[in-house]
């Protein structure tokens, strides 16, 4: 007896159509691969697109039953993911109650959070959206280093193109690993584990309106090579140390020492990408006297050693 896995792709204003069509192609490629390899030949995936338009959420394709998988793809245009979406949330909640696995890629995680599905869970989203996500949903355990985080009923994927990783992961829940690997070879995509931390960059918020904090930020961008105490930063801001710590974190999302570390990491990445100087020299140039401490920090933040990072992203 054949088994059909119904996949619902949820489209809101601004949804990346490349991801929608790519997801369809990937699931259909999985069907062809299953038939060719004669593994799980009675299994097939069927994709149904759902579109939010003029206050209604309706299927664009024929749908015979409730979905097993629901995917909210990346949202690249506009800010529909930040706006109240009660109808979308209601559908997501209903499908979840009926046993569907609810999934997101990139900004799609905001709609899962808005629906309350991520409460008490660990989730990821695009690293550039981290501060906005934390502002709106501070109670959710967010890990933007992860490219994909999975529970039995919820899956969130981080980057704009992480819908590929998400689809391969979902397909892998139903088919043998050999099918996923064959599919990866056919599509020429990496089916191995990766981390979003490989690709994230430091893009601090500067338009927060706190002139005292901004003055310190500009100072750290220029003087990151030198030791910077919190007391010295507070004096530059013209604030008491406690007030400075509170306002700096509120404005930037970082503690001052974390901010300095991220600025140094940014400059270390640039040096490793664009020069062939030694790792020891890079460490010294960005303000680390102890190269061992630099290596540990770099690996913790990126998931790669400095040498591995240069090999992967360097000239």
From TrEMBL:
Pfam families from the UniProt entry: DJ-1_PfpI, HTH_18
Keyword tags: DNA-binding, Transcription, Transcription regulation
Domain HTH araC/xylS-type: 214-312
An example Gene Ontology molecular-function term: DNA-binding transcription factor activity
InterPro entries tied to this protein: Class_I_gatase-like (IPR029062), DJ-1/PfpI (IPR002818), Homeodomain-like_sf (IPR009057), HTH_AraC (IPR018060), INH-QAR (IPR052158), Tscrpt_reg_AraC-type_HTH (IPR020449)
Domain of life of the source: Bacteria
Keyword tRNA processing: no
PROSITE patterns recorded: HTH_ARAC_FAMILY_2 (PS01124)
SMART domains reported in the protein's UniProt record: HTH_ARAC
Keyword Transcription set for record: yes
Name of this protein: AraC family transcriptional regulator
